[in-house]
TrEMBL record:
Residues 7-109 form the Thiolase N-terminal domain. GO terms for biological process: fatty acid beta-oxidation; phenylacetate catabolic process. SUPFAM superfamilies: Thiolase-like. It comes from human gut metagenome. InterPro entries: Thiolase-like, Thiolase-like_sf_Thiolase, Thiolase_N. Gene3D superfamilies: 3.40.47.10. GO terms for molecular function: acetyl-CoA C-acyltransferase activity. This is 3-ketoacyl-CoA thiolase.
Length: 109
């Protein structure tokens, strides 16, 4: 069986999770670990030569300097992820807003 992206990436993720036996618990653990590792790498300066600070406005219109990936959530825990509802398949889904990619513009400087 070959995975093909048909429609939303979230539904593709659901299909791949079923195909490869990736449980909800496995996804939650991976996501929590991923956020922790990304934050640790950011704090250690691992991305300092890859991200060029740029100015912009935050959600309230305040001018701000952006110099790190805003999608990293260092406070993410397996316990918090376990409380989230499936985002793409409400009946038997395993992919949540906390374990799927962010809806973002992906902008970089």
């Amino acid at each position: 069986n070959v995975a093909k992206a048909a429609g939303m990436m979230g539904l593709t993720a659901e299909m791949l999770a079923r195909m490869h036996g990736i449980s909800r618990e496995m996804q939650d653990a991976f996501a929590a670990r991923s956020h922790a590792r990304a934050w640790a790498a950011t704090q250690s300066g691992a991305f300092k030569n890859e991200i060029i600070p740029t100015g912009g406005h935050d959600a309230d219109g305040v001018l701000k300097q952006f110099n790190y990936d805003e999608v990293i959530r260092p406070e993410t825990t397996v316990e918090a992820l376990a409380t989230l509802r499936p985002a793409f398949d409400p009946v038997s889904g395993t992919v949540t807003a906390g374990t799927s990619s962010a809806l973002s513009d992906g902008a970089a400087a």
